[in-house]
Structure formats: structure tokens, C-alpha cells
Design goal:
39% of the residues lie in helices and 18% in strands. It is α/β, with parallel strands linked by helices. The structure holds adenosine-5'-diphosphate and magnesium ion (MG).
Length: 691
């Protein structure tokens, strides 16, 4: 029997499952006996009632009853047994290509049959090929077949063997242990696990199977609840384990530094920034390591929050590391941090994957000796050779591109029995339901206010047949002293192709707009070349910047008031919203032109429509979630954390509040149940492997 501590029971332990079937079941993600009960039907065959032959429709699986009025073996290209079945309302052909002589006798004229099969168009009447059948008497009992489940299958596995395997697993002791406390189920009004599985795999004749399939049934809700709970428990346990490994340093000094920065900024923090800064500062004053996510729309001013946190760490005698997912974003941070911290007498170090050994050496030495209090960089910061004298704070920007585990790797850079506080920042507005599941291991702060003086961006969608109009618009904007972006997108994630497309676009625009100074940035340019173009754009020496999506984050040019996005239908809404956030940073009215390649499908049209209507990142993300699903919204790297077997965030989002409420009690009072639930739903490999 499977206990909470065993990895599970091999499928071959079940009667009737040999290595071959086990291997095929594995392709459906079914690897242990304990997985089988949670493989739910796609649909049900209705064997609860007998239908009239005259009512049958092609494609419909149905049970009918009637008398064989003709039966003959037809020879021809394929020898077959053909019977005609009539019930007074119509007749139907039953066709058997494989049959025994005995069978031909059993299906002789005059026999009364009950038949289940899928009706298809035949030469004369509808026909059923190889239906299930049994001979019945005139006064037979009503059908006892009920609803027969049809499961998602794969090549080499048929429905009967899936059904047998799943029933065997349901009967196997220990595979469906109830881990939820009885009182909890009573409070939630949800059925027991056994009752829920019974209802799903073998619904009684009076079940509303449509509701069951739609998930609108207590049985499915019970399973979805348990699954969401297991995922939440897993993240909470991960967080508890992480926190228990080592304490963090108390970072509550640095008041002079933060005051000096605030006076030098030239703007006052918004109310939202002040609140979030307060939350961060409170966390950093604790021995318990901070694990906080700061969410804020593009341009909401997250960088200042990070800088203030860094100054607290530095003022308390510790170091801070700021990590970004792309070179360009990291470079942008480097510039902000240098501009803010160097006047305070602090050195800001730089580590990127492109730095040469000679460039790195002084930085690495400075970090180890403690002479460099703050370092900005990319993934390069994860590397083993990077040693800190005393790392007290890690800031990770755009967390969704790193993934939970990469973030955890930096934790190990702490020294002397401490781990750094962690501040994660994301501009991807994540709907609450997603945040609660994807980031359950983090506390969340939201900057829900933009700095004053921003003008909302007007967004229009146009087919690329109107490209000339758009080019004229750029000409006018630049003639009026404004700057513009032209963003090229590609379907494939290929740096080379993307760079080529951007180059082609840039030269075409150069021909059409000879009076403009055009710059080009793409992922294939050397960091220094890219930086040079960006600087010229920032300094107003470039009018039109042609770019790939590398400019998505990290560019801040308030004078740029026009953005053209080519083939916007290729990008996610959140990504488009981020791109668009590059304009509307100054006082001028800004606009964004979505230059699509028509004709657009209905979904694409709806998605671009959302962008036109709204400038609210959270609303956009919520709609994106509805249209595309959670994996796409968060980016592929995190989909692992969000693929559920049964739960559906849109359908079952209302359960999350209760999931959140019951998780702490379970962690405290039923640790063995927590372990078993995590094993059942989350598995062990993925989430814990790299911690
Ligand atoms: P994001 O949240 O997208 O990272 P940034 O931190 O890059 O936003 O801030 C965008 C711009 O707004 C920067 O130029 C920054 O200096 C400026 N900014 C930040 N906070 C304020 C504020 N309270 N008032 C005015 N400007 C601000
Ligand atoms: Mg930012």
C-alpha cells in the first residue's frame, strides 16, 4: 500500500497491466497507480435509456432496442455480417466485419437485441459498426449501463483497457486515501474523495453529466479544490523551508542615504510608492528573510523602491545585488543606479554575460572584498565565481522571466550563515487569481498608482495596407520635434531572423523618410553598439528608433510620443501593453499604432480591441487570461507551476479564497496530509529538485 512516504505504486502492480500498457499509460502522464483515479472522463456514453431508432442521429452514441428483421453474411471485398434491427420507429443496420459462426446464429432473424453504438450514415439507413450488443427478452429490466466514461486516450490504448485500469486503481487500497480533514469537508460542503471519484467515474443514471463535464458539480469542485490546495501547500512549504534555512540580516539603517536620495530625485514618491516602500522596509528590519513581490504597471516607479531598499542594506553594512533578465534592462538599471548612488559616494558594479574576464576581475574582487556595495547584472550574477563579502539584499526585476528556481539560486550567495532578503519586481500585471497561485511563496505589494503628469496613450489598430499613412504620421511627429519607435515582431524566437527583419524595415523606412535620423537596435548587436544607439535616442540625436522587442523593458525617453508595433497579433497582450508603456512618459499626448497584417481572426481582433479600450494593465491581464490561459500570460517558463490536471483557474478561481484560508491549518495540524497531497498533485521532482 502506498503510504505518504513512498514514491507511489508502479502501474504493473495492478491486475491486467503489463509493462507495455504501463508504458502507454505513462504517455498520458499516468505513471503510478495513484495517478489513475485522477484521469477524468472527457465525456460519457449515455446507456441510461433506450432511444428510438427513428430518433437516432449520425455521430450520436446511443442505446437502442429492437428485433432483428434480417441477417445475412455478405461476401464481397470484405466478408461481413449485416443485420437489420427494427423497433417500429425505424430500422438500422448492424455491421460486423469480424464474427464467429456462432455469432451469426445468435444474431439470427427474430432475435430481440439491446445494442449500443455510434450511428453513422450507411448506404440505406444509419448503421452501427461493431456495436456492443446483448440479447434481451421482451420484458427485460431497464438498462443498467448508466453513463459509461470515455477517457482521454492515446495510440495503443483503448477505452475498455483504460476503464479496467481505472476501476482497478479505484479498488486498490491506498490509492484514494482521504487526506482532507472531515470537518473541513463539512465546512466547505464538499463530498469525500471516494464519493467524488465514484460520481465522476461512474455517475448514476440521474446525474446531470453536462454539469459534471462543465465542472459545475460538487464532485469536480472537490477535486479542483484539493488540487489547488496541494499546489498552494507546496509553495507555502517551500517558503517555510527556505526561511528556516538561515536568518537574514536586520537591515534597518541607511536613513541618511535614503533621505539624500529622496532629496536628489526631483520628484516626490507617490502614495503607492510610499506604502510599498514602508512594506519593504518593515520586512528588511526582520530576521525572517523578506520574500516580497512588488507588482506595478509599466512606469509606476518600481526602480526607486529597489534603490531605497538597496540603500538600507548598504547603510546597514551589507551589499545588494540587482538582477535583470536582459542585457538592455540591466543596462538601464545600471544607468539609474549610477545616476542615483554615485553622487552619494557609492560604487555601482556591473556583471553581465558579455563582460570579458578582464572587465569582471575588478568587480569580482570588489564584491568579495566588500568595496563594491551594489552590483547590477544579468544571469551572470548567479555564477559560482561571484562571491560577496556580505550579500544582504537581492533585487530581481521581471521575475516571471527567471522562474522561481533561478531566483532561489541567488539566495545561496549569502555568507556567514545568513541568507539575503529578496525583493522581486514585475511589470507584468498579474490577475489576483494567478498571483495567488504562481506567487504563493511571495508576499505581494502593489504599486497601483502612476506618477502624476502622465498622459494616457491613445491606441489604434490599422491594417498594414495603410502603412503609408503611418509613415506620414511619423514624419509629422518628428517634424514637430517628437521621437518615435517602430517595433518589429517575429513569430519565431530567432535572434537572427528578427535582426534581419528589423534591418530590412529600417532600410525601407530610411528610403521613405530620408529627412529622419533612424537608429536600429536588436538582440544581435554588441552591447556597446546597442548602448550607443540607445544613448543617441535618449539624447534626441535619433528621431526614429527601429527595434525588435528587446526594447520592451528598460527604455525611458519621455520625448518619444509615437509607437508603431508591426504584427501586434503575434504578441501577448501583456507584452504589447509593456511595449506601449515606452510612450506616454512625458507631457505630450502619445499614441500607439497596432499595424496588423489582415485579415484578423476573431480572437486576434478581440485581443487588439482590449488594448484599444484600456490602459489598465490589470484589466488587460485579466482579459488576456480569459482569452489565452494562464501559461501564456505568465510566460512559458512558469507554466509548469500552473498546469493543473483538473482545476481551471477561470472556472475555479472562486475556490482560491477558501484554499488560502484552509492551507495554514493543514500545515500546522496535518503535516503528513500535506506531504501526501503535494505528492498526489504536484509530484516531488519538479518543485523541490533545485531548492
Ligand atoms: P517601472 O515601474 O516601469 O520600472 P521606473 O522605475 O522605470 O518604472 O520609473 C519610470 C520613470 O518614472 C522614471 O523616469 C522614474 O524616475 C520616474 N518616476 C518614478 N517615480 C516617480 C514619481 N513618484 N514621480 C515622478 N516620476 C517618477
Ligand atoms: Mg522597471
Amino acid at each position: 500500500m502506498a503510504s505518504a512516504d513512498s514514491p507511489g505504486t508502479p502501474l504493473t502492480r495492478l491486475p491486467g497491466i503489463g509493462p507495455r500498457l504501463a508504458e502507454r499509460l505513462g504517455r498520458l502522464g499516468l505513471r503510478r497507480v495513484e495517478d489513475l483515479p485522477f484521469h477524468l472522463p472527457l465525456r460519457y456514453e449515455d446507456r441510461t435509456r433506450v432511444r428510438r431508432v427513428g430518433e437516432l442521429e449520425p455521430g450520436l452514441g446511443a442505446l437502442v432496442e429492437g428485433t432483428v428483421t434480417a441477417s445475412e453474411v455478405v461476401s464481397g471485398r470484405r466478408r461481413r455480417l449485416v443485420c437489420r434491427l427494427s423497433d417500429g420507429t425505424g430500422s438500422l443496420e448492424l455491421v460486423f466485419f469480424h464474427f464467429y459462426a456462432n455469432q451469426a446464429r445468435q444474431l439470427a432473424r427474430g432475435t430481440r437485441l439491446r445494442v449500443f453504438g455510434e450511428a453513422r450514415p450507411g448506404p440505406v439507413t444509419l448503421q452501427m459498426v461493431h456495436p456492443d450488443w446483448e440479447a434481451v427478452s421482451e420484458d427485460a429490466d431497464p438498462p443498467a449501463g448508466g453513463f459509461v466514461p470515455v477517457y482521454p486516450a492515446t495510440e495503443g490504448i483503448n477505452q475498455p483497457s483504460l476503464r479496467r485500469a481505472i476501476s482497478a486503481a479505484l479498488a486498490w487500497s491506498g490509492s484514494v486515501t482521504e487526506w482532507l480533514p472531515a470537518q473541513l469537508l463539512v465546512d466547505l460542503g464538499l463530498p469525500t474523495l471516494t464519493a467524488a471519484l465514484q460520481r465522476v467515474h461512474a455517475p448514476s443514471a440521474d446525474t446531470d453529466v453536462e454539469a459534471l463535464l462543465a465542472g459545475d458539480d460538487p464532485a469536480i469542485q472537490r477535486l479542483a479544490y484539493e488540487e489547488l490546495l496541494a499546489h498552494r501547500l507546496s509553495l507555502l512549504r517551500l517558503r517555510a523551508e527556505q526561511r528556516s534555512l538561515a536568518p537574514a540580516p536586520i537591515l534597518q539603517e541607511g536613513k541618511t542615504l535614503t533621505r539624500d536620495l529622496l532629496t536628489s530625485l526631483g520628484f516626490a514618491l507617490t502614495g503607492a510608492q510610499q506604502r510599498v516602500d514602508g512594506e519593504v522596509s518593515a520586512d528588511m528590519g526582520e530576521r525572517r528573510p523578506m520574500l516580497r513581490l512588488v507588482q506595478g504597471d509599466v512606469g509606476s516607479g518600481k526602480t526607486v523602491i529597489a534603490a531605497l531598499a538597496a540603500l538600507r542594506a548598504i547603510g546597514s553594512g551589507w551589499q545588494a545585488a540587482v538582477m535583470a533578465p536582459t542585457e538592455l534592462l540591466a543596462e538601464q538599471h545600471l544607468r539609474s543606479f549610477r545616476a542615483w548612488l554615485e553622487p552619494l559616494g557609492l560604487t555601482v558594479g556591473w556583471l553581465s554575460g558579455r563582460s570579458t574576464a578582464a572587465q569582471r576581475r575588478p568587480t569580482l574582487e570588489g564584491l568579495q572584498a566588500g568595496d563594491i556595495p551594489l552590483v547590477v547584472g544579468t544571469h551572470a550574477l548567479f555564477q559560482e565565481r561571484v562571491v560577496f563579502r556580505g550579500l544582504g539584499l537581492v533585487v530581481v526585476d521581471e521575475q516571471h522571466r527567471f522562474g522561481v528556481h533561478q531566483r532561489l539560486a541567488l539566495r545561496n550567495k549569502g555568507a556567514g550563515g545568513v541568507q539575503p532578503h529578496q525583493l522581486v519586481m514585475t511589470a507584468t500585471p498579474i490577475p489576483r487569481t494567478l498571483a495567488m497561485t504562481a506567487y504563493a511563496d511571495l508576499d505581494v505589494s502593489v504599486i497601483d498608482e502612476l506618477p502624476p503628469g502622465r498622459t494616457p496613450v491613445t491606441t489604434v489598430a490599422m491594417p498594414d495596407t495603410r502603412r503609408q499613412e503611418v509613415v506620414d504620421r511619423i514624419r509629422h511627429a518628428c517634424a514637430a520635434g517628437r521621437q518615435a519607435y517602430w517595433v518589429c515582431t517575429l513569430v519565431e524566437e530567432s535572434d537572427v531572423l528578427e535582426a534581419e527583419a528589423a534591418e530590412a524595415t529600417a532600410s525601407r523606412l530610411a528610403e521613405q523618410l530620408p529627412e529622419l535620423r533612424i537608429g536600429l537596435v536588436h538582440g544581435r548587436l554588441a552591447a556597446t553598439a546597442k548602448e550607443a544607439v540607445m544613448r543617441r535616442f535618449e539624447a534626441g540625436e535619433v528621431d526614429l528608433l527601429v527595434a525588435t522587442t528587446v526594447i520592451e523593458v528598460g527604455v525611458n525617453v519621455p520625448n518619444a510620443s509615437l509607437m508603431i508595433i508591426e504584427n501586434p497579433e503575434r504578441l501577448g497582450l501583456a507584452q504589447l501593453h509593456q511595449l506601449r508603456g515606452r510612450v506616454g512618459r512625458g507631457e505630450t499626448r502619445s499614441s500607439c499604432v497596432l499595424l496588423y497584417h489582415g485579415p484578423l481572426g476573431e480572437t486576434a481582433r478581440a485581443r487588439l480591441g482590449i488594448l484599444r479600450e484600456s490602459n489598465d494593465g490589470f484589466r488587460i491581464a485579466r482579459r488576456d487570461l480569459e482569452i489565452r490561459g494562464p501559461g501564456e500570460v505568465l510566460g512559458t517558463r512558469q507554466t509548469g507551476a500552473l498546469t493543473y490536471r483538473i482545476a481551471d483557474l477561470l472556472r475555479d478561481g472562486h475556490l482560491l479564497e477558501r484554499v488560502q484560508a484552509s492551507a495554514p491549518g493543514l500545515l500546522n495540524d496535518h503535516p503528513e496530509a500535506v506531504t501526501a497531497l503535494i505528492r498526489r498533485w504536484v509530484g516531488e521532482g519538479e518543485r523541490y529538485a533545485q531548492v
